[in-house]
Design brief:
The chain has two helices and five strands, in the order E-E-E-H-E-E-H.
Length: about 100
Protein backbone atom coordinates (compact mmCIF):
# COMPACT_ATOMS: atom_id res chain seq x y z
CA UNK A 1 0.00 0.00 0.00
CA UNK A 2 1.24 3.48 -0.82
CA UNK A 3 0.15 6.59 1.05
CA UNK A 4 0.69 10.19 -0.05
CA UNK A 5 -0.18 13.14 2.17
CA UNK A 6 0.10 16.63 0.69
CA UNK A 7 -0.38 19.72 2.83
CA UNK A 8 -1.01 23.24 1.63
CA UNK A 9 -2.83 26.46 2.25
CA UNK A 10 -2.75 28.58 5.34
CA UNK A 11 -2.34 32.34 5.38
CA UNK A 12 0.64 32.25 3.01
CA UNK A 13 -0.86 29.55 0.79
CA UNK A 14 2.31 27.47 0.99
CA UNK A 15 2.48 23.89 -0.24
CA UNK A 16 4.91 21.50 1.36
CA UNK A 17 6.48 18.53 -0.40
CA UNK A 18 4.14 15.55 -0.05
CA UNK A 19 4.91 12.82 2.44
CA UNK A 20 5.10 9.47 0.67
CA UNK A 21 5.12 6.07 2.34
CA UNK A 22 5.29 2.63 0.77
CA UNK A 23 4.27 0.18 3.47
CA UNK A 24 6.36 -2.54 1.79
CA UNK A 25 9.41 -0.64 3.09
CA UNK A 26 8.21 -0.61 6.71
CA UNK A 27 8.58 -3.05 9.58
CA UNK A 28 5.56 -5.29 10.08
CA UNK A 29 4.31 -3.43 13.18
CA UNK A 30 4.29 -0.04 11.41
CA UNK A 31 2.72 -1.58 8.30
CA UNK A 32 -0.03 -3.21 10.39
CA UNK A 33 -0.72 0.01 12.30
CA UNK A 34 -1.13 2.01 9.07
CA UNK A 35 -3.35 -0.71 7.60
CA UNK A 36 -5.59 -0.59 10.68
CA UNK A 37 -5.79 3.21 10.53
CA UNK A 38 -6.61 3.20 6.79
CA UNK A 39 -9.33 0.61 7.41
CA UNK A 40 -10.76 2.62 10.34
CA UNK A 41 -10.83 5.82 8.24
CA UNK A 42 -13.05 4.09 5.63
CA UNK A 43 -11.66 6.17 2.76
CA UNK A 44 -13.69 4.31 0.16
CA UNK A 45 -16.90 5.59 1.74
CA UNK A 46 -15.84 9.24 1.85
CA UNK A 47 -16.61 11.85 -0.80
CA UNK A 48 -13.60 13.13 -2.77
CA UNK A 49 -13.75 16.41 -0.85
CA UNK A 50 -14.64 17.06 2.75
CA UNK A 51 -15.22 20.68 3.73
CA UNK A 52 -11.95 22.27 2.72
CA UNK A 53 -12.60 25.20 5.05
CA UNK A 54 -11.84 28.83 4.40
CA UNK A 55 -9.11 30.19 2.16
CA UNK A 56 -6.62 30.55 5.04
CA UNK A 57 -7.07 27.06 6.48
CA UNK A 58 -4.49 24.36 6.03
CA UNK A 59 -5.78 21.67 3.71
CA UNK A 60 -4.67 18.12 3.02
CA UNK A 61 -4.90 15.76 0.10
CA UNK A 62 -4.64 12.15 1.22
CA UNK A 63 -4.20 9.40 -1.36
CA UNK A 64 -4.04 5.69 -0.67
CA UNK A 65 -3.17 3.19 -3.39
CA UNK A 66 -3.79 -0.40 -2.40
CA UNK A 67 -1.55 -3.24 -3.55
CA UNK A 68 -4.24 -4.25 -6.07
CA UNK A 69 -4.13 -0.76 -7.64
CA UNK A 70 -7.36 0.51 -6.09
CA UNK A 71 -6.91 4.18 -5.22
CA UNK A 72 -8.81 6.56 -2.99
CA UNK A 73 -8.13 10.27 -2.64
CA UNK A 74 -9.80 12.79 -0.36
CA UNK A 75 -9.19 16.51 0.07
CA UNK A 76 -9.97 17.89 3.49
CA UNK A 77 -9.26 20.36 6.25
CA UNK A 78 -8.49 19.04 9.72
CA UNK A 79 -11.65 20.73 10.99
CA UNK A 80 -13.71 18.48 8.68
CA UNK A 81 -11.71 15.31 9.36
CA UNK A 82 -13.14 12.46 11.38
CA UNK A 83 -11.12 11.32 14.41
CA UNK A 84 -10.05 8.30 12.35
CA UNK A 85 -8.73 10.51 9.53
CA UNK A 86 -6.90 12.70 12.04
CA UNK A 87 -5.27 9.62 13.55
CA UNK A 88 -4.21 8.40 10.09
CA UNK A 89 -2.77 11.79 9.13
CA UNK A 90 -0.87 11.99 12.42
CA UNK A 91 0.58 8.49 11.95
CA UNK A 92 1.64 9.22 8.36
CA UNK A 93 3.49 12.29 9.63
CA UNK A 94 5.21 10.27 12.37
CA UNK A 95 6.23 7.44 10.05
CA UNK A 96 7.46 9.82 7.35
CA UNK A 97 9.52 11.80 9.88
CA UNK A 98 11.18 8.58 11.09
CA UNK A 99 12.33 7.61 7.58
Amino acid sequence: MKLVLARGGGVAGLRKAPLEIDTADLPAAARDRLRALVDAAQLATLPPELDAGGPDQVGYTLSVVEDDGTAHTVELSLSAATPELRALIAEIRVVAAAK
